[in-house]
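Summary of Year 1 activities. Much of the first year was spent building the evaluation harness for sequence design. The harness presents a backbone, in tokenized form, and records the residue chosen at every position. We chose the following record to illustrate the format because it has been used consistently in internal testing since the harness was completed.
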């Protein structure tokens, strides 16, 4: 196989490894820990790129100055693919329209407008999100006030902002 084709396939192969590790991690190893399994999948794909590039460097005729830029480019491609995958997976978990449709499918007798409003009022949604953040120690409550806890969500927010800057050239679509 030519070196150019091999270089093209490396980030795709790493993404396949990522998805497989994510699925196996989510189902069997981390038992439903979505964020942790996504991060473990990302790390496995990232390591796979590094391994593949190292292998090609050690067993090929390309020098370090030719291999290192290819490593950086493949890591950037992989990071972009992972960003798309992360948002695809996350959309199914957080988008209200997707959740609404899932709830309607699960309710064979349907839901009334008032039942939908009860499930999806802003106060209830904030209450659920705060409950989730508290249960995972991502925020803490002291004397009726909320404070930042474990920096997991902050890290994810920074990664998303970085990826938007990298892929879109701006922090949000409203700029």
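For this record, the design step produced the sequence shown next.
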């Amino acid at each position: 196989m030519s070196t150019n084709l091999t270089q093209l396939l490396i980030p795709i192969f790493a993404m396949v490894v990522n998805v497989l590790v994510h699925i196996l991690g989510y189902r069997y190893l981390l038992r439903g820990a979505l964020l942790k399994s996504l991060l473990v999948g990302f790390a496995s794909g990232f390591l796979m790129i590094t391994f593949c590039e190292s292998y090609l460097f050690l067993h090929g005729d390309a020098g370090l100055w030719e291999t290192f830029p290819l490593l950086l480019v493949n890591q950037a491609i992989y990071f972009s693919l992972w960003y798309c995958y992360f948002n695809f997976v996350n959309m199914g978990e957080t988008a209200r329209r997707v959740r609404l449709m899932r709830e309607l499918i699960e309710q064979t007798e349907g839901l009334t407008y008032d039942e939908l409003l009860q499930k999806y009022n802003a106060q209830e949604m904030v209450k659920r999100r705060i409950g989730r953040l508290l249960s995972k120690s991502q925020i803490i409550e002291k004397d009726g006030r909320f404070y930042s806890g474990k920096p997991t969500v902050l890290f994810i927010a920074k990664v998303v902002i970085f990826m938007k800057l990298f892929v879109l050239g701006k922090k949000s679509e409203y700029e």
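The first helix runs from residue 3 to 29. Quantitative recovery figures across the full test set are reported in Table 2.
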